[in-house]
Amino acid sequence: MSHATPIRTCEEVIRSSELLGGLEDCQQAALAAISVKQQFEQGHRVMSQGQACPGVYLVDSGLVRIFRIGPRGQQHVLHLCGPGQSFAEVAAFGNFPIPANATAVQRTHCVLIPIDALQRELANNHELCRQMLSSMSLWVRHFVQLLDDIVLRDAMERVARLLCDVPCDHSGRLKLPGPKKDLANHLNLTSETFSRVLRRLNEQGVLDVDSDRTIRVLDSEQLAKIGALAR
């Protein structure tokens, strides 16, 4: 039996977001007061590379694919943005055009903090600016880590690191946070390489891969060891 996703308020979504969850309650309430809810159906283009930034999007439910298109039409997935995550934040704070495209992978509910209202709030609320700088520094550190993963780590280490960041249930099962081809592209791998790594981890007894999207972690310590950052 399926259950409808609970409808949350803008403030609840802001409170649970990775970007804004660390703000003080009064700052979260100030942002909630200027926010609006939006819903996107599967396949909907939420934003396009080069357009004016509409604001900061916070994902409440669903999944959004963030990607860039190169001069020869090639695509690279920058991020798969799920519940608790955000996108377009750097463009909104810097007030410059959107640097990437965003498409809903499935039906998605978001909270949008419109850029004009956000810029006014930042201009008048210096404490919010200070707290935002702290949140953004953590976000920058996340992307530096991602760059390290792509440049300095092999395919097995990249996939293991990705899986370590996906929450498991009580039995060790996890669900891949997006289509396999998008996850592979995000890690700068081919789909074939991504699948081959999963098979190797399955053969080594680290994982039990029983479907395309659902995996059971059999040896979490070994998975963490494979995905650990080199010191």
From TrEMBL:
Record bears the keyword DNA-binding: yes
The entry's keywords: DNA-binding, Transcription, Transcription regulation
Top-level taxonomic group: Bacteria
Domain HTH crp-type: 153-221
Residue span, Cyclic nucleotide-binding domain: 19-136
Segments crossing the lipid bilayer: none
Molecular function GO terms recorded: DNA binding; DNA-binding transcription factor activity
The keyword DNA-binding belongs to this UniProt entry's keyword annotation: yes
GO cellular component, as recorded: cytosol
Cited Pfam families: cNMP_binding (PF00027), HTH_Crp_2 (PF13545)
Record's protein name: CRP/FNR family transcriptional regulator
